[in-house]
Task: structure prediction
Amino acid sequence: MLEIQKNLANWRGVRPPEPVVLAGRWAELEPLSAAKHADSLWQALHGHDQVWEWMADGPYATEADFAAAIAAKEAGESVQFFAILPSSASGEAGWAVGYASLMRIDAANGAVEVGNVMFSPILQRTPVATDAMYLMAKYVFDDLGYRRYEWKCNSLNLPSRKAAARFGFTYEGTFRQHLVVKGRNRDTAWFSMLDIEWPARKRAFESWLAADNFDEQGQQIRTLGSITASL
Result:
């Protein structure tokens, strides 16, 4: 702990996330654009109202309403949204199939949250989804130099809690009666990943995402959790 405090003696903060393109083996992330991504996102999400259960917005009755919501996210000045696309190397068409954001940005203290994570059904439980989360964490820690990366969700949202643990976040506690979302109380579960933890998490991500971790049918050989535990 003393060494950490010593290292912070010259801390000057970091810069906010920017509208950059992030490319990986399975996924590509680019700044969310209503003109470019709303149509393909609508196609991926329309008819799957269950994906909106834990989100603060949606579901949307019409494509026009959905496109307006995407335009509002694009225009937001305090949140950086990224569209998630399968990479050309993954063998899939390069259409947006989800999105996520970097939000609650505290550049002075080096803390930022990954939130608004929307995985369409065709993105869920795929290497593309995991690669997207890896690329965002890598951008936050390696490129921008943040100290703390947060994940928050409704405490009743078990899939999100499991995802946080799988991606290497540590549960910190629950804020009771934290928010009112869609007319319902939300107790918020808080998770975090720290810069001193990132090197091991990074190795786990990269080992899981490597080509030799998938068989000829594209199925994983080792789970991300088992790789993390072995490091």
Summary: The domain at 13-230 is CATH 3.40.630.30 (Aminopeptidase). The chain has a mean pLDDT of 94. The chain has one domain: 13-230.
